[in-house]
Design goal:
With 143 residues, the protein is mainly alpha-helical. It is built from six helices and two strands; from the N terminus they run H-H-H-H-E-E-H-H. Helix 4 packs antiparallel against helix 5.
Length: 143
């Protein structure tokens, strides 16, 4: 789906280019795992946003106001994982759909297969070059 690609554009010659780098996905991650207000800190296309560290920094510098503990702190999340990315992509896909309630299969779309395919993209890689590219994408998400 186009919403999984930066600027909603797919390079058919290189399907990994821009894959999972849409700003909307970063904003959804921050809204769910850090806090809805942390989405205001994301500029541009998500490049340069240290998703987890910026949230910790914001919480630490706010001495005068009580800051709610974010999900990343509660679950001790130190890095973004394939499972969290897949979860966010599924949440965004659901939000963009026209259905009003969650079902594993809505119409012809199966969220379980979709989630598994995203996780498999990260975890079942054919060699060291692909592993390096996948690790770079995970670093992009975690930085």
């Amino acid at each position: 789906p186009l919403f999984m690609y930066k600027n909603y554009r797919v390079n058919t010659d290189n399907l990994e280019e821009g894959f999972l780098k849409l700003k909307l996905l970063v904003l959804a991650f921050k809204a769910i795992f850090t806090s809805p207000s942390s989405t205001k800190e994301t500029n541009g296309d998500g490049n340069g946003t240290d998703i987890l560290e910026n949230t910790r920094h914001t919480q630490q510098k706010s001495d005068q106001a009580k800051v709610k503990t974010c999900v990343t702190s509660i679950i001790n999340m130190k890095k973004v994982t394939p499972h969290t990315i897949a979860y966010i992509v599924c949440q965004v896909r659901f939000a963009l759909s026209s259905v009003s309630s969650w079902h594993t299969v809505d119409g012809g779309f199966n969220y379980e297969i979709f989630w598994t395919n995203i996780v498999t993209f990260f975890e079942v890689v054919p060699g060291p070059i692909t592993r390096h590219r996948v690790n770079k994408l995970l670093e992009w998400w975690t930085r």
